[in-house]
């Protein structure tokens, strides 16, 4: 399918997103790191990872999901307090799997989305019910504790049509059954390019953000990053929805340096074509590497870029 796109002349930066809870380390990350948040950002999203699927003995997904993050560290009460203290914060729940051992591979294509909706809604409701509890001391005075979902499978054993049909139906079922699901994002990679492309164009009306994992590709210069970004704009037809991503995970950031990412984002901001940025992930950012002076150093630099612009 071919799509052409006219890029808007002016796009203002409005959003910064951070994945969190996706790894067991560090042990000292026992709460949302509010010190990371720049209150001048219009929207700051913490994306909780991950709701991971249960697989049968033959490796097929059963449509049953479970939390992999530490529920005590990122509890409903802590989400409520965070949102009370920082009005620009929203909290999103990520769904999928980050390794080849967690592919999208439904056991029953026809019934998968219904089973998945029931399982995921139950887990989301464990957060949502807190906002309705009048005895909650950290009442955030907001309608919902959870604001949306993020589709984040990195591997698939199904074809693009099956992926798009199942995931698209799941998104629509969740939005219909839960008014709290106001925001939806997808997290494409080069590996699943046809899968996510088909998913996006079949459900463009209900997908708010495209978190594209630039760090999973070889990007050697700022010019290459800008060229890739513009290429993706033409493929997704979405100049106000596409967010480039960088990683602080030492195991996943070998194909693009942080310096290249920062310079590329500067160029996109100068041309007024970048709506925001996302970072993978707070768990690794909490532990300063040789490149960083303090925890969340890269997050601070990138948010300053957005707000200064």
Question: Would you give an account of this structure?
Answer:
Helices cover 34% and strands 19% of the residues. The chain is built from eight helices and nine strands. It has a single domain, classed as Glycosidases (TIM Barrel), CATH 3.20.20.80. The chain has an eight-stranded parallel barrel with strand order 1-2-4-5-6-7-8-9, surrounded by four helices. By secondary structure, it is α/β, with parallel strands linked by helices. The radius of gyration is 19 Å and the shape is globular. α4 links the parallel β6 and β7.
Key terms for this structure?
TIM Barrel, 34% helix, hydrolase, 9 strands, endochitinase activity, 8 helices, glycosidase, Glyco_hydro_18_chit_AS, 309 residues, 8-stranded parallel barrel, Glycoside hydrolase family 18 protein
Write the layout of secondary structure elements.
Layout: E1 15-20, E2 43-55, E3 61-67, H1 76-85, E4 89-97, H2 109-131, E5 148-153, H3 160-177, E6 183-186, H4 193-202, E7 209-212, H5 222-236, E8 242-247, H6 258-270, E9 276-280, H7 282-285, H8 297-308
Parallel strand pairs: 1-2, 1-9, 2-4, 4-5, 5-6, 6-7, 7-8, 8-9
Antiparallel strand pairs: 2-3
Helix pairs in contact: 2-3, 3-4, 5-6, 6-8
């Amino acid at each position: 399918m071919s799509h052409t796109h006219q890029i808007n002349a002016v796009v203002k930066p409005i959003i910064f997103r951070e994945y969190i809870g996706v790894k067991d380390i560090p042990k000292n990350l026992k709460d949302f790191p509010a010190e990371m948040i720049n209150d001048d950002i219009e929207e700051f999203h913490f994306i909780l990872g991950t709701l991971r699927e249960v697989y049968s003995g033959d490796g097929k997904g059963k449509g049953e999901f479970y939390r992999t993050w530490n529920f005590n560290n990122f509890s409903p009460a802590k989400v409520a307090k965070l949102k009370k203290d920082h009005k620009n914060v929203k909290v999103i729940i990520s769904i999928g799997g980050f390794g080849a051992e967690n592919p999208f591979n439904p056991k029953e294509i026809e019934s998968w989305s219904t089973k998945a909706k029931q399982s995921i809604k139950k887990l989301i409701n464990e957060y949502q019910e807190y906002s309705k509890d009048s005895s909650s001391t950290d009442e955030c005075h907001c309608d919902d504790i959870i604001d949306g979902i993020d589709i984040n499978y990195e591997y698939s054993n199904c074809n693009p049509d099956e992926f798009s049909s199942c995931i698209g139906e799941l998104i629509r079922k969740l939005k219909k059954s839960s008014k709290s699901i106001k925001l939806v994002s997808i997290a494409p990679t080069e590996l699943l390019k046809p899968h996510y492309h088909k998913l996006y164009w079949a459900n463009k009306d209900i997908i708010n953000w495209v978190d594209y994992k630039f760090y999973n590709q070889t990007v050697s210069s700022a010019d290459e990053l800008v060229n890739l970004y513009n290429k993706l704009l033409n493929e997704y037809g979405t100049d106000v929805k596409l967010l480039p991503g960088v990683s602080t995970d030492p195991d996943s950031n070998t194909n693009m340096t942080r310096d290249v990412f920062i310079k590329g984002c500067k160029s996109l901001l100068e041309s007024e074509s970048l709506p925001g940025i996302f970072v993978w992930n707070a768990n690794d950012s909490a532990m300063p590497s040789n490149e960083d002076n303090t925890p969340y150093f890269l997050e601070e630099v990138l948010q300053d870029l957005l707000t200064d612009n």
